[in-house]
Amino acid sequence: MISVNGLRKRFGATTALDGMTFTVRPGQVTGFVGPNGAGKSTTMRIVLGLDAADAGEALVGGRPYRTLSDPLRHLGSLLDAAALQPGRTARNHLLWLAHSQGLGARRVDEVLTQAGLSAAARRRAGGFSLGMRQRLGIAAALLGDPPALMLDEPFNGMDPEGIIWMRRFLRALAAEGRAVLVSSHLMSELQDTADHVVVAGRGRVIADASVAELLAAASDGRITLRSSSAGAAAVLTEAGASVTPGTDGTLTVSGLPAETVVAVLNRHQVPFSEVTAYRASLEDAYLELTRDAVDYRAEEVR
Ligand SMILES: Nc1ncnc2c1ncn2[C@@H]1O[C@H](COP(=O)(O)OP(=O)(O)OP(=O)(O)O)[C@@H](O)[C@H]1O
């Protein structure tokens, strides 16, 4: 288990962390998302003892990371997949890490297989694509067979096949009972992967909930329907609903139960089809939550 309690951190005039607090539970993939500058990397660096917090604490299995005598057996981490010696082969890179922790070559070969890198084990890591470097980073994180994993943007640079592999792999690691924290810019990457999501903004937690809860809140009892009649939006608005036209000819309706929507359209003899409960995506939920916490946003195109 990883717990982050009231972390505060300033860099000069910038407040990077402003009371960041959350827990990463065993047996779950916890997504850690938020706009640029939300404080995700700073939080992870503090968990690993690479930065010192001004206040608060971060614990791994109940202890500060710096006090662990064999840390790779407690927490595996991937912060920067590009950080490796380009001249070393993948296997030698892992052997070097393994020896520093009293782990043998057999474990190195196991994690190379797990990460799908056996065939590339004797190639120089400097020639690896970003996706392969991510796999090598994951292999390194797994060396000590730790109960907790913390991965910063592991989907970065992965091709579609790699993304599917990574999703399944993270799920399997959580199913083995590990606590898995995964940061990402793209909420969509975490769909079908994360059980739980911590949304950060401006150095603190904006939402900390299960994926099911987030989706239910963002769906908010809305329904969608399809109608070719221009009158549909008008009669529903008049009946008290709020209506948003979609780009695909659908209307999203909120503020009225489905039965009332159907009754209103029938009463006004407005043709319609496909009345369904609106299902928000994780991306929708995220955009709604972070609307006020984004530092940099492109001007809307008019
Ligand atoms: N070493 C540093 N010196 C000065 N400012 C820093 C430093 N590290 C982080 N910051 C600032 O702290 C804030 C939080 O940054 P952090 O990298 O933790 O956010 P993030 O959520 O990981 O962002 P991103 O998604 O862009 O990686 C930002 O405003 C950033 O500019």
Automatic annotation (TrEMBL):
**Which residue numbers delimit the ABC transporter domain?**
2-227
The UniProt keywords, alphabetically, are: ATP-binding, Nucleotide-binding, Transport
Q: Which InterPro entries does this one have? A: AAA+_ATPase, ABC_transporter-like_ATP-bd, ABC_transporter-like_CS, P-loop_NTPase
One protein family per Pfam: ABC_tran
Q: Domain of life of the organism in this record?
A: Bacteria
Example of a GO MF term:
ATP binding
- On whether Nucleotide-binding is a keyword of this UniProt record, the answer is yes
Q: Give the protein family.
A: Belongs to the ABC transporter superfamily.
Q: Which PANTHER family match?
A: ABC TRANSPORTER, ATP-BINDING PROTEIN
Q: In its UniProt entry, what is this protein called?
A: ATP-binding cassette domain-containing protein
What's the source species for this entry? Dactylosporangium fulvum
